[in-house]
Amino acid sequence: MTSRVKIFSGTSSLYLAEKMAACYGKPLGAVDVQKFNDGEMSPYYKESIRGDEVYLVQSTFPPADNLMELLLLIDAARRASAAYVTVVMPYFGYARQDRKDKPRVAIAAKLVANLLSAAGADRLMTCDLHAGQIQGFFDFPVDHLDGSAIFFPWLEQLQLKDMIFAAPDVGGVGRARSFAKHFAVDMVVCDKQRKRANEVAAMQVIGDVEGRDVVLVDDIVDTAGTICRAAALLKEKGARSVRAVCTHPILSGDACQKIEASALEEMVVTDTIPQRNSTQKIKVLTVADLFAEAIKRVHGHESISSLFV
Q: Which residues are catalytically annotated?
């Protein structure tokens, strides 16, 4: 007997899980998260999941309660005799801490991987990890979906005359190169130096952008300081236009105001993180179709290689 697919959502990603379930063609499963007066959470499933394939949708952006709620949902599914538990985490929080870059710091990405394993997850489905090698922190399958599947069609319809891609920092060279390779165009790099986290000290462009339509490619935009400074520098170097594509729009603090006042023509992001504040320059594309298709293929034991890198 083939197990049934049931899709559930944590509190913070309900907006996206509803779209995923609609794309998949099933109603979202019933789950409730009760809270004690002190904020302690107690989730429970309002329907039987015995022997079912359970897909739990929850991104782990702040607050940390989102991660804790996800862990409790995994544990509850295991104790309710679910046959298979897949964590659908469009945005993998704490991924920026993936190594010891200075003494006496935590490797948060590895810790989150350990917590998911300990809670009882069988599989992880995510999109555009900050560093691809984070997949190696897990001892179960990881489906690393590629956000470029969302951005490529949008870029194609723009029909930019002389497009070139740019990495806003050296760490983003791989992402920018994959976009450049797909469109068979050149790329440049904005080399930055930081004073401290979230503060850029200096930046320079490596490559020629004179008269070109530049597209900056990044996985995360937090304060938007780097991407706005890169856009200004590219315009100074003679770029005809500057746009940006970014998978995970954290957009903390006054990031939206910075983007509105920046040299960017527009910034295209996905809905892996809900937008509480926005600006006319930001366009949001959904990842719901991408994840729904991945769930279908995983359930049907089909290849999903075209959906991730």
A: 192
